[in-house]
Sequence to fold (152 residues):
Amino acid sequence: MASSSHPSAPCAACKFLRRKCIQGCVFSPYFPPEDPTKFTNVHKIFGASNVSKLLNEIAPHQREDAVNSLAYEAEARLKDPVYGCVGAISVLQRQVLRLQKELDATNADLIRFSSNQNILRPPQVSGSSIQNPHVLPTSDYYGIYSPWNYNP
Fold:
């Protein structure tokens, strides 16, 4: 769980709001005094009153996740006021698509290089018959020998 409140130091929210941090402070478990920027960012974007209402309305076991989400969105909104974290997700999705296209092109180059190497390589001789991987087998799909490749 998040850090607990310190009896001597007020939480970052109460310190920022310049009020006494009481024992049942809704902010203290989630905004420790060691990380004042977390609350500052959340307060700038959402407001302390709205965050307090939100935390009081949700179940205690969900509060930490809610505060972490608010802090992430607040930081993203400070970097990109219009799109916030959606803008970051969009940038990452475009990067994934670009890298997927690059990977597909590289795989195609590897296949092309591999097939060029096989064409340029002289046929391998094993025993008395020549094995060429680019020649169709002498039997068709059903296992019946074709009359064109019949060697008595």
In short: The chain has five helices and two strands.
